[in-house]
């Protein structure tokens, strides 16, 4: 039976995890029968209020909220996780709307979200009521506001707090924008790796089952393991290596502080390690990508992220973007 017909209540594509894998019945069931809301719990920083939004109607575009609301599917970290990490690292309050039965209906309805409507989650509702979708667009918006766009934007924000103006077009402003664009560039490359990792298990059609494209998937996995994954890791290793601020052993992709680029790479490498544990162990052992793995370990232990992981609120990888299929993994 066509996957869409099996889940008439479900939107056509749920990050490809709900409709495209025969072995993810638990996700399918939980989506249809009990749409859950995952709201961030309380942490030591007091972020992520435990507001249950599952039964409440989402605010419309005209209603202003006090805080950011992340609209994303329930049950998987997915691409929503990249947005969560930015909030968690910076200690920024946010809540989530995770009612899978309403999500696409809201995001595609101009009466709910205004212009433009949205293709797919994640989407972020800003305190103004405006919605933004596309993971990198959301991150690029948040970066200067959350101190994750690099040192130069942090300095500007500090000045602004003191009431000092930094003019658009000034050397300082342009320098900060350039740095922010560099962060965005690296975010996009890390997300390319995320997308390619996903495409290994869905190389033909996102709406079809993995089992129905397994032959191509097995071929794609060889190329991914041998060529693509090492190429991406080598790229990031080089970036870490040539950052002059890393001379003392630091592992920042940009400058000398954590940016969205570090957070996204951290999550992608974690996901790749979940999906391809044997291959990643071999790549680790090669010693060629030590800085990339050191970055991952650094972020795991950084303020905000450490507490987030320890809180148990960080959802485990399962059958979302990053999936583990034994037959796709090998040492080389
Ligand atoms: N490029 C978009 C991709 C968004 C996306 O693929 N979202 C998934 C969930 S992670 C989805 O629900 N897709 C539905 C679809 O592609 O129809 C982004 O980075 O946000």
From TrEMBL:
CDD domains: GST_C_Sigma_like. Residues 66-150 form the GST N-terminal domain. Residues 35-45 have a biased composition (Polar residues). Residues 35-61 are annotated as: Disordered. InterPro entries: Glutathione-S-Trfase_C-like, Glutathione-S-Trfase_C_sf, Glutathione_S-Trfase_N, GST_C, GST_superfamily, Thioredoxin-like_sf. Residues 176-317 form the GST C-terminal domain. It holds the Pfam family GST_C_3. This is Glutathione S-transferase.
């Amino acid at each position: 039976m066509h996957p869409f017909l099996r889940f008439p209540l479900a939107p056509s594509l749920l990050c490809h995890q709900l409709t495209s894998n025969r072995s993810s019945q638990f996700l399918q069931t939980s989506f249809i029968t009990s749409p859950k809301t995952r709201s961030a719990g309380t942490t030591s920083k007091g972020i992520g209020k435990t507001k249950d939004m599952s039964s409440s109607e989402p605010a419309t575009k005209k209603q202003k909220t006090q805080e950011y609301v992340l609209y994303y599917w329930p049950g998987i970290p997915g691409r929503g996780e990249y947005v969560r990490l930015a909030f968690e690292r910076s200690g920024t309050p946010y809540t989530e709307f995770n009612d899978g039965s309403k999500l696409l209906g809201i995001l595609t309805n101009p009466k709910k979200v205004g212009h433009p409507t949205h293709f797919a989650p994640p989407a972020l509702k800003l305190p103004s009521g405006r919605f933004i979708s596309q993971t990198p667009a959301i991150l690029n918006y948040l970066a200067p506001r959350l101190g994750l766009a690099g040192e130069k934007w942090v300095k500007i924000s500090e000045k602004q707090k003191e009431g000092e103006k930094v003019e658009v077009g000034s050397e300082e402003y342009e320098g900060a924008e350039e740095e922010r664009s560099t962060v965005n560039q690296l975010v996009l490359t890390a997300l390319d790796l995320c997308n390619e990792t996903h495409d290994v298990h869905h190389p033909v059609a996102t709406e079809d089952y993995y089992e129905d494209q397994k032959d191509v998937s097995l071929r794609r996995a060889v190329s991914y393991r041998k060529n693509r994954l090492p190429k991406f890791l080598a790229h990031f290793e080089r970036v870490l290596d040539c950052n002059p601020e890393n001379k003392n052993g630091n592992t920042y992709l940009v400058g000398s502080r954590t940016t969205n680029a570090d957070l996204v790479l951290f999550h992608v490498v974690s996901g790749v390690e979940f999906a391809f544990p044997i291959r990643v162990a071999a790549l680790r052992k090669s010693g060629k990508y030590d800085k990339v793995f050191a970055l991952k370990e650094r972020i795991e232990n950084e303020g905000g992220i450490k507490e987030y992981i320890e809180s148990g609120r960080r959802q485990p990888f399962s059958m979302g973007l990053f999936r583990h299929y034994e037959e796709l993994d090998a040492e080389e």
